[in-house]
Amino acid sequence: AAAGRALPPAGRSKWDIREEVWEHLEASGLAEFPRPVRGRIPNFKGSLQACCSLRELEVFSRAREVKVDPDKPLEGARLAALQARKTLLVPTPRLRTGLFNRIVPPPGATKEVLRRCATSQGVRDFSVPVGLDSKAQVDLVVVGSVAVSEKGWRIGKGEGYADMEYAMMVSMGAVQEDTPVVTIVHDCQVLDIAEELLGDHDLTVDYILTPTRTIQTNCKRPKPQGIMWHKVSSEMLGKIPILKTLRWREKQAGKDVTLQDEHPALAHPKRAAIPHRKVMAADPQPWAAPGSAHVGSDPVNPKSEGSAPITTVYVGNLPGSLRVSQLKSALRELQVVPAALKWQGAQHRAFLAYREQGAAHRALSSLQGLSLGGNALRVELAKSHRNKG
Q1: Non-local CB neighbours of 271 within 8 Å, separated by 6+ positions
Q2: What is the pLDDT of residue 55?
Q3: 4, 149 Cβ separation under 8 angstroms
Q4: Are 166 and 231 in contact (CB under 8 A)?
Q5: 63 shares its domain with 198
Q6: What does the DSSP assignment read for 70-136?
Q7: Residue 2 lies in a domain
Q8: What is the CATH number of the domain that holds 65?
Q9: Same domain, yes or no, for 177 and 251?
């Protein structure tokens, strides 16, 4: 419990809290693969133990359909749902191709196969897309968090996807006001969060599971009542195809679906004063748009870019059969197109050059855990001049 109060809340922004949690997990040796944990829902030592507590919750026992996010620390929660023979729904990464996939293990799956189905690769290999008209009825929602308070206030990694997923489920009729929400974190991620940091679009949680505790928050703050279109940017709409469909449907139903950038009066009044990196969720960077940067065959020469520093991402363990076009295609699909790409197929590696550090961190996060040609990629920030033979 003392660890839960390690970060005093006074005057801290959500980004301050995120940075301190990420830093603490790394510095204390609690961080687990995928590393670094910065920029993601962090995996931590004891995550499986915390996930096992899910089975003891009555809301889990009663649930038939469970939605669990695809983050690594929630692998044990996905496994628990599969072992209990519940319908497991997992959101598609960054909601690119829809909202959910249903994980369908092969008939007679052994415990080992179920364990594989619960991994990120298994989610890709054993999943069936769930359409908007599937009439999904989610009985329990399990989300990852960077930080959470005992009152149920939650802070995610800052991209807004968990909040958006929940709002979309409300819009689809897949969750009700009383659908319980569980988050699974390390004890040190449970800390005081000032309520004024929460927006009306922020998802709150009803249960917190840690390696040592089960906390019922008795949170009375209402959860999001649907998609708040005035907080959605045109760019986010462009990246999440299913959002366009939901918007069209709500427009047909007579709802106001005016977007953030179509309705300047509703834009955040303090927005201009917020440092650039802190508005990533509401205003994703243009580099992320497909085809927004040319993928060349040679790395950018940093000197030719004036004073702009180049951040290079190392991608290793590429299979010998992989072609550069396949890697480029994956980068486009993941919306992490670099300014330049250096291909060293014979050495089973490539180097991706990004003009912005934020773009490089997004690439790290998106590529981590990705398999190409049957190989799990090894992805990390390259050391200076690492691309010497």
Answers
A1: 279, 282
A2: 96
A3: no
A4: no
A5: yes
A6: --GGGHHHHHHHHHTT-EEEEEPGGGSS-SEEEE-PPTT--HHHHHHHTSHHHHHHTEEEE-TTS--
A7: no
A8: 3.40.50.10420
A9: no
Q: Per-residue pLDDT tens for 206-256? A: 999 999 999 999 999 999 888 999 888 888 888 787 888 888 888 888 999
Q: Is pLDDT of 306 > 50?
A: no
**CA 219/CA 221 separation, integer angstroms:** 6
What domain range is 47 assigned to? Answer: 14-216
**Parallel, antiparallel or unpaired: strands 65-68 and 140-143:** parallel
The length of the chain in residues reads 389
Q: What is the dihedral of CA 64, 70, 72, 74, to 10 degrees?
A: -20
Cα angle for residues 117, 120, 124 (degrees, 5° grid): 70
| pTM exceeds 0.85 for this model | no
Q: CA 121, 27, 185 angle in degrees (round to 5)?
A: 50
Same domain, 78 and 192: yes
**Alpha-carbon distances of 250 from 8, 40, 145, 245, 254, rounded to whole Å:** 42, 31, 29, 9, 6
Q: In this structure, are 181 and 241 located in the same domain?
A: no
The answer to whether residue 1 sits within a structural domain is no
32 and 97 share one domain: yes
Domain count, the chain: 3
Assess if residue 95 is contained within a domain: yes
β-strand partners of 141: 67, 181
Same domain, 127 and 253: no
Same domain, 242 and 129: no
Instruction: Report the pLDDT value the prediction gives residue 356, as an integer from 0 to 100.
Output: 87
Alpha helices in 221-323 (DSSP H): 234-239, 241-252
- As a whole number of angstroms, the distance between CA 75 and CA 275 comes to 34
In CATH, what number is assigned to the domain containing residue 365?
A: 3.30.70.330
User: Per-residue pLDDT tens for 20-42?
Assistant: 999 999 999 999 999 999 999 99
Hunting for tokens 């366009």 — which residue is that? 244
Q: Are residues 212 and 233 in the same domain?
A: no
Residue type, 296: G
